[in-house]
């Protein structure tokens, strides 16, 4: 354990002492002092930035949700994380857009996220039950899980039909 830590420290020190690191720091200082970054930031529209960010998050949700009925636990969890990130972006940029449209879209996201959360909790509880040898205690029946997956599919279809408030 100590040898691995010492090796990692040596690698970090070697990287920091390398010419490439020094060049990067000099470039960073030059860029900061030049103030060009302030002009670029001030000329950018927050609405355009928000739209780009929301579009990117939405594309990721759509991509991760493809073939939803056939997704395994890992891919369902990745979809859940993408939905969560999408919701954070929606909440953050909400003041820039019409409240009613944001609210409908956000509510649809939240419902789907809650459903995926239940499925994720069930999967994790199965692992815990198996790990501690607790038998069948607290496990969701397969029919209940199947219903949850159908609910997720329905909610995903509903979410995809929601108007994208940032594109109006």
TrEMBL record:
Domain CHAD: 1-168
InterPro entries: CHAD_dom, CHAD_dom_sf
PANTHER family linked to this entry: CHAD DOMAIN-CONTAINING PROTEIN, SLR1444 PROTEIN
Name the UniProt record assigns to this protein: CHAD domain-containing protein
Species the sequence originates in: Sphingomonas sediminicola
């Amino acid at each position: 354990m100590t040898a691995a830590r010492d090796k990692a420290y040596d690698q970090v020190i070697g990287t920091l002492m390398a010419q490439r690191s020094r060049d990067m720091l000099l470039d960073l200082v030059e860029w900061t002092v030049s103030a060009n970054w302030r002009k670029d930031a001030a000329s950018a529209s927050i609405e355009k930035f928000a739209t780009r960010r929301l579009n990117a998050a939405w594309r990721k949700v759509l991509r991760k949700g493809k073939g939803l009925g056939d997704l395994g636990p890992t891919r369902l969890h990745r979809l859940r994380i993408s939905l969560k990130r999408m919701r954070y972006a929606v909440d953050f940029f909400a003041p820039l857009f019409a409240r009613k449209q944001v609210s409908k879209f956000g509510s649809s996201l939240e419902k789907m996220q809650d459903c995926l959360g239940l499925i994720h909790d069930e999967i994790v509880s199965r692992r815990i039950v198996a790990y501690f040898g607790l038998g069948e205690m607290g496990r969701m029946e397969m029919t209940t899980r199947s219903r949850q997956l159908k609910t997720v599919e329905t909610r995903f279809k509903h979410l995809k039909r929601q108007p994208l408030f940032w594109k109006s």
